[in-house]
Design brief:
By secondary structure, the chain is α/β, with parallel strands linked by helices. It contains nine helices and twelve strands. The chain is globular.
Protein backbone atom coordinates (compact mmCIF):
# COMPACT_ATOMS: atom_id res chain seq x y z
CA UNK A 1 0.00 0.00 0.00
CA UNK A 2 1.06 3.60 -0.56
CA UNK A 3 1.77 6.06 2.23
CA UNK A 4 -1.45 7.04 4.05
CA UNK A 5 -2.72 10.47 3.07
CA UNK A 6 -4.22 10.87 6.55
CA UNK A 7 -2.96 9.34 9.79
CA UNK A 8 -4.79 9.88 13.08
CA UNK A 9 -2.54 8.81 15.93
CA UNK A 10 -3.88 8.19 19.42
CA UNK A 11 -6.22 11.18 19.61
CA UNK A 12 -8.30 11.80 22.73
CA UNK A 13 -10.76 14.51 23.71
CA UNK A 14 -12.56 15.16 26.99
CA UNK A 15 -15.19 17.68 28.03
CA UNK A 16 -14.88 17.93 31.78
CA UNK A 17 -15.36 14.40 33.08
CA UNK A 18 -16.84 13.15 29.82
CA UNK A 19 -14.35 11.29 27.64
CA UNK A 20 -15.73 11.87 24.13
CA UNK A 21 -12.87 10.17 22.24
CA UNK A 22 -10.25 7.93 23.82
CA UNK A 23 -6.94 7.02 22.16
CA UNK A 24 -8.27 6.49 18.63
CA UNK A 25 -5.95 5.78 15.70
CA UNK A 26 -6.73 5.11 12.06
CA UNK A 27 -5.42 5.91 8.60
CA UNK A 28 -6.81 6.53 5.13
CA UNK A 29 -5.09 5.80 1.84
CA UNK A 30 -5.37 7.87 -1.35
CA UNK A 31 -8.16 6.48 -3.51
CA UNK A 32 -9.95 4.86 -0.59
CA UNK A 33 -13.37 5.22 1.03
CA UNK A 34 -13.36 4.81 4.79
CA UNK A 35 -16.75 4.34 6.42
CA UNK A 36 -17.30 5.48 10.01
CA UNK A 37 -20.17 3.99 12.01
CA UNK A 38 -21.31 3.98 15.60
CA UNK A 39 -24.34 4.72 17.72
CA UNK A 40 -25.26 8.21 18.89
CA UNK A 41 -22.63 9.34 21.38
CA UNK A 42 -20.01 6.96 19.99
CA UNK A 43 -17.60 9.84 19.34
CA UNK A 44 -17.86 9.96 15.55
CA UNK A 45 -18.59 13.68 15.27
CA UNK A 46 -15.95 14.68 17.82
CA UNK A 47 -13.39 12.52 16.04
CA UNK A 48 -14.17 13.99 12.63
CA UNK A 49 -14.18 17.52 14.04
CA UNK A 50 -10.62 16.84 15.18
CA UNK A 51 -9.79 15.65 11.67
CA UNK A 52 -11.26 18.84 10.16
CA UNK A 53 -9.40 21.08 12.61
CA UNK A 54 -12.56 22.37 14.27
CA UNK A 55 -11.52 20.78 17.58
CA UNK A 56 -7.98 20.34 18.89
CA UNK A 57 -7.27 16.97 20.53
CA UNK A 58 -6.16 16.85 24.17
CA UNK A 59 -3.55 14.30 23.16
CA UNK A 60 -2.42 12.53 20.02
CA UNK A 61 -1.92 14.12 16.63
CA UNK A 62 -2.70 14.02 12.91
CA UNK A 63 -0.39 13.69 9.93
CA UNK A 64 -1.37 14.60 6.37
CA UNK A 65 0.86 13.10 3.67
CA UNK A 66 3.44 12.41 6.35
CA UNK A 67 3.50 15.93 7.82
CA UNK A 68 2.15 16.69 11.27
CA UNK A 69 -0.90 18.98 11.35
CA UNK A 70 0.05 21.91 13.55
CA UNK A 71 -1.32 24.27 14.63
CA UNK A 72 -4.61 22.38 14.85
CA UNK A 73 -7.12 24.71 13.19
CA UNK A 74 -9.68 24.56 10.39
CA UNK A 75 -7.49 26.86 8.29
CA UNK A 76 -4.43 24.68 8.78
CA UNK A 77 -6.38 21.49 8.05
CA UNK A 78 -7.85 23.03 4.92
CA UNK A 79 -4.44 24.25 3.77
CA UNK A 80 -3.15 20.69 4.27
CA UNK A 81 -5.93 19.37 2.05
CA UNK A 82 -8.75 18.33 4.41
CA UNK A 83 -12.29 19.43 3.62
CA UNK A 84 -15.36 18.50 5.67
CA UNK A 85 -18.93 18.56 4.38
CA UNK A 86 -21.30 18.72 7.33
CA UNK A 87 -24.75 17.17 7.38
CA UNK A 88 -26.45 20.57 7.10
CA UNK A 89 -24.17 21.32 4.09
CA UNK A 90 -23.77 24.98 5.08
CA UNK A 91 -25.37 26.26 1.88
CA UNK A 92 -27.22 29.58 1.54
CA UNK A 93 -30.64 29.05 0.00
CA UNK A 94 -30.90 32.59 -1.35
CA UNK A 95 -27.64 32.35 -3.31
CA UNK A 96 -26.99 30.71 -6.67
CA UNK A 97 -25.00 27.53 -7.29
CA UNK A 98 -21.90 29.52 -8.30
CA UNK A 99 -22.24 31.90 -5.36
CA UNK A 100 -22.45 28.97 -2.94
CA UNK A 101 -19.50 27.15 -4.49
CA UNK A 102 -17.31 30.23 -4.03
CA UNK A 103 -18.89 31.53 -0.82
CA UNK A 104 -16.11 33.04 1.29
CA UNK A 105 -13.53 32.19 -1.39
CA UNK A 106 -14.60 34.54 -4.18
CA UNK A 107 -12.18 35.23 -7.02
CA UNK A 108 -11.58 38.92 -7.45
CA UNK A 109 -9.81 41.13 -9.93
CA UNK A 110 -9.43 44.87 -10.32
CA UNK A 111 -10.48 47.58 -12.65
CA UNK A 112 -8.83 50.96 -12.18
CA UNK A 113 -9.18 51.65 -8.47
CA UNK A 114 -11.94 49.09 -7.79
CA UNK A 115 -12.04 45.40 -6.81
CA UNK A 116 -14.51 43.33 -8.85
CA UNK A 117 -15.77 39.75 -8.72
CA UNK A 118 -14.54 37.49 -11.52
CA UNK A 119 -18.03 36.12 -12.17
CA UNK A 120 -17.34 34.54 -15.56
CA UNK A 121 -14.23 32.79 -14.26
CA UNK A 122 -16.07 31.47 -11.19
CA UNK A 123 -18.95 30.25 -13.33
CA UNK A 124 -16.56 28.51 -15.75
CA UNK A 125 -14.66 26.85 -12.90
CA UNK A 126 -17.90 25.64 -11.31
CA UNK A 127 -19.07 24.24 -14.62
CA UNK A 128 -15.75 22.45 -15.16
CA UNK A 129 -15.78 20.86 -11.70
CA UNK A 130 -19.39 19.72 -12.01
CA UNK A 131 -18.84 18.29 -15.48
CA UNK A 132 -15.71 16.46 -14.33
CA UNK A 133 -17.87 14.74 -11.72
CA UNK A 134 -20.60 13.90 -14.20
CA UNK A 135 -23.04 16.42 -12.70
CA UNK A 136 -25.36 18.41 -14.95
CA UNK A 137 -27.28 21.16 -13.12
CA UNK A 138 -28.13 23.01 -16.37
CA UNK A 139 -28.33 26.47 -14.79
CA UNK A 140 -25.46 27.71 -12.62
CA UNK A 141 -27.49 30.78 -11.66
CA UNK A 142 -30.42 28.90 -10.12
CA UNK A 143 -30.92 29.53 -6.41
CA UNK A 144 -29.94 26.62 -4.18
CA UNK A 145 -33.38 26.67 -2.53
CA UNK A 146 -34.76 25.31 -5.81
CA UNK A 147 -32.49 22.25 -5.84
CA UNK A 148 -33.27 18.75 -4.62
CA UNK A 149 -31.46 17.25 -1.65
CA UNK A 150 -29.13 15.25 -3.87
CA UNK A 151 -28.30 18.28 -6.01
CA UNK A 152 -27.55 20.31 -2.88
CA UNK A 153 -25.14 17.61 -1.72
CA UNK A 154 -23.40 17.78 -5.09
CA UNK A 155 -23.05 21.57 -4.81
CA UNK A 156 -21.43 21.11 -1.39
CA UNK A 157 -18.98 18.59 -2.86
CA UNK A 158 -18.19 20.94 -5.75
CA UNK A 159 -17.50 23.72 -3.24
CA UNK A 160 -14.92 21.53 -1.51
CA UNK A 161 -13.23 20.80 -4.82
CA UNK A 162 -12.75 24.42 -5.86
CA UNK A 163 -10.87 25.24 -2.68
CA UNK A 164 -7.46 26.79 -3.20
CA UNK A 165 -5.49 23.67 -3.93
CA UNK A 166 -7.72 20.61 -4.36
CA UNK A 167 -8.29 18.62 -1.16
CA UNK A 168 -6.57 15.33 -0.45
CA UNK A 169 -9.18 14.17 2.08
CA UNK A 170 -12.94 14.76 1.98
CA UNK A 171 -14.97 14.03 5.11
CA UNK A 172 -18.73 13.70 4.62
CA UNK A 173 -21.17 13.61 7.53
CA UNK A 174 -24.30 11.58 6.71
CA UNK A 175 -24.32 12.55 3.00
CA UNK A 176 -27.45 10.48 2.19
CA UNK A 177 -29.34 10.76 5.50
CA UNK A 178 -32.17 12.92 4.12
CA UNK A 179 -32.24 11.44 0.60
CA UNK A 180 -34.44 8.88 -1.09
CA UNK A 181 -33.16 5.75 -2.81
CA UNK A 182 -32.52 7.28 -6.24
CA UNK A 183 -30.73 10.38 -4.95
CA UNK A 184 -28.74 8.32 -2.43
CA UNK A 185 -27.50 6.14 -5.26
CA UNK A 186 -26.47 9.21 -7.27
CA UNK A 187 -24.53 10.67 -4.33
CA UNK A 188 -22.85 7.33 -3.60
CA UNK A 189 -21.89 7.00 -7.27
CA UNK A 190 -20.30 10.43 -7.00
CA UNK A 191 -18.36 9.37 -3.90
CA UNK A 192 -17.03 6.38 -5.84
CA UNK A 193 -15.95 8.69 -8.66
CA UNK A 194 -14.09 10.84 -6.14
CA UNK A 195 -12.30 7.75 -4.86
CA UNK A 196 -11.45 6.66 -8.38
CA UNK A 197 -9.89 10.09 -9.00
CA UNK A 198 -7.53 9.48 -6.09
CA UNK A 199 -9.25 11.32 -3.24
CA UNK A 200 -9.45 9.81 0.21
CA UNK A 201 -13.10 9.96 1.27
CA UNK A 202 -14.30 9.48 4.84
CA UNK A 203 -18.05 8.87 5.12
CA UNK A 204 -19.96 8.94 8.42
CA UNK A 205 -23.28 7.13 8.09
CA UNK A 206 -25.96 5.26 10.01
CA UNK A 207 -26.93 3.35 6.86
CA UNK A 208 -24.91 0.23 7.51
CA UNK A 209 -25.88 -1.89 4.46
CA UNK A 210 -25.23 1.08 2.17
CA UNK A 211 -21.86 1.77 3.78
CA UNK A 212 -20.78 -1.87 3.59
CA UNK A 213 -21.33 -1.73 -0.17
CA UNK A 214 -19.70 1.67 -0.60
CA UNK A 215 -16.64 1.70 1.66
CA UNK A 216 -13.32 -0.09 1.25
CA UNK A 217 -12.70 -0.14 5.00
CA UNK A 218 -14.78 0.49 8.08
CA UNK A 219 -14.05 2.23 11.37
CA UNK A 220 -16.51 1.21 14.11
CA UNK A 221 -16.78 3.40 17.21
CA UNK A 222 -18.39 2.77 20.60
CA UNK A 223 -18.14 4.89 23.72
CA UNK A 224 -15.44 7.07 22.20
CA UNK A 225 -13.22 4.10 21.37
CA UNK A 226 -12.29 2.29 18.20
CA UNK A 227 -13.62 -1.26 18.24
CA UNK A 228 -12.88 -2.18 14.62
CA UNK A 229 -10.79 -0.81 11.77
CA UNK A 230 -10.44 -3.05 8.75
CA UNK A 231 -11.75 -4.11 5.34
CA UNK A 232 -15.51 -4.13 4.92
CA UNK A 233 -15.15 -7.66 3.58
CA UNK A 234 -14.55 -8.75 7.19
CA UNK A 235 -18.03 -7.62 8.22
CA UNK A 236 -21.69 -8.11 7.44
CA UNK A 237 -24.65 -6.16 8.77
CA UNK A 238 -25.19 -8.45 11.75
CA UNK A 239 -21.54 -8.39 12.79
CA UNK A 240 -21.38 -4.62 12.36
CA UNK A 241 -24.45 -4.12 14.57
CA UNK A 242 -22.91 -6.39 17.21
CA UNK A 243 -19.78 -4.23 17.29
CA UNK A 244 -21.81 -1.02 17.50
CA UNK A 245 -24.00 -2.32 20.33
CA UNK A 246 -21.57 -4.51 22.28
CA UNK A 247 -18.19 -3.03 21.40
CA UNK A 248 -15.18 -4.98 22.69
CA UNK A 249 -17.52 -7.56 24.23
CA UNK A 250 -18.45 -8.69 20.72
CA UNK A 251 -14.77 -9.09 19.85
CA UNK A 252 -14.14 -11.18 22.98
CA UNK A 253 -17.18 -13.36 22.32
CA UNK A 254 -16.04 -14.10 18.77
CA UNK A 255 -12.48 -14.82 19.92
CA UNK A 256 -13.84 -17.33 22.41
Amino acid sequence: MSEPVLEVVGVSKSYGRVRAVSDVSFEVQPGEILGVVGDNGAGKSTLMNMVSGAIAPDSGHLRVAGERLAPHTIGRARAAGIEMIYQDLGLSDNLSVVENVFLGREWTGTVPGLPVLRKKAMRARTQTVLESLGIDLHDMNVLVEGLSGGQRQMVAIARALVAAGEPRVMVMDEPTAALGTTESRAVNDLIVRLRDRGYAVVVISHRIPELLELADRLLVMKGGRRVHHGPTSELDVERCVQLIVQGSAALERNAA
